[in-house]
Amino acid sequence: MKKFSFALVIVMLFSSMAAAAEVVKAYTTMEEPLAKALFDAFEADTGIKVEWVRLSGGEAIARLEAERANPQASIWVGGVGTQHIEAKLRGLSTPYRSRVANSIPERYRDPENYWTGLYVGPIAFCMNTERAAELKLDMPKSWADLIKPEYAKKVRVAHPSTSGTAYNMITTVIRINGGDEDKAFEYFKELSKSVEQFTRSGSAPGKSCALGEIPVAIGYLHDQIKLQREGAKIQIVIPEDGTGFETASMSILKDGPDPLNAKKLYDWVLGQKAMDIIAKWYVIPLSNKATPTETGFSLEKMNLVNQDDQWDASNKERLLERWNKEISTAPEK
Length: 333
Prior knowledge:
Structural class: alpha/beta
Oligomer: single chain
């Protein structure tokens, strides 16, 4: 009987250890409710628990760099594609050829399998209609509109040193100016007169606009549509003089603690169930497995700039240094 009891304890101990091992540590740049819905569904399907931390894109890169010698996460889900390219260039991620990756168009996948795109999100403006009526403001329809005197200190946008959204804004305006960086930075000097606050996160300005804290915000279209569908009294416009877009992506992190489960999560996120969850966030999914959600906006009707994520990633350090020198050194806390 004692031998049986001892054997039972050993079996239970090993079972407990095996169960405890079924975990994957992740960083995500998705909004917290979406990340929770996604990772909870993965756990329900697989029994693997996702221990995740939500970071802005810039914060994710900074943390990965700080943890280079002792990585704390195995996968990074979401975040602007240029930052995933940056992670690759810095040796912070590792290639993985997912068996489900063919569901994503080739142009949105790294040719060396370091990252895979999940969805596209164009840059948009939103305006709180109640605040606009009080202030007698018209909806800005172009980047040129935002630097008009009536918008002085009435716009909120993220800071490019911490936000991939805001860095996407820099490269977008450069392209609108035909690649002339000097003209673009002259524009940003004027835009800074309109900006009341530079935030840390790219989604924060839209939330402030929805609450009426600020009349106008710059951010990604899907974040703004979600706020509008939840009842926020905001109007949304795609800038008619041109807009850029994020290719939200996913990478396996180099030397992460849970590589096998990270690959399982990576494959699962590219599957139909996960893509349908992501599509409900009003983004434009890249997977041919996804069931898109109607938003009233289409890429075909947008004046999209000729975006080059590889150039954007390669020139980021230089452009941010110029931004910090000429425009603004730090975001608001």
